[in-house]
Amino acid sequence: PAVKKAISEAALQYTKPEGKVFEYGTAGFRMKADLLNTVVFAVGLLAGLRSKKLSGQWIGVMVTASHNPAEDNGVKLVDPMGEMLEAEWETYATRLANAPLESIADVYDELVKEIDVKVTNQARVVFARDTRASGSRLVGVLSAAMTATEVEFIDFKYMTTPQLHYVVRCKNTLGTQYSYGEPSEQGYYDKLAQSFKKVMRGVKVQGSLTVDCANGVGGPKLRELIKVLDSGLDIKVINDDVINPDSLNFDCGADYVKTKQRAPPSSKAAPLDRCASLDGDADRLVYYFLDESNVFRLLDGDRIATLAASFIGDLARNAGIASKLKIGVVQTAYANGASTDYIEKVLKLPIICTNTGVKHLHHAALRFDVGVYFEANGHGTVTFSENAMKVINNTEPQSPAQKSALESLQALTDLINQAVGDALSDMLLVEAILSHKGWSPKEWLGTYTDLPSRLVRVEVNDRSIFKAYDAERKLESPAGLQTKIESLQSRYNKGRSFARASGTEDAVRVYAEAASRSEADDLATRVANAVR
Ligand code: NG1
Ligand code: ZN
Question: Is Ribonucleoprotein one of the keywords (predicted)?
Answer without folding.
Answer: no
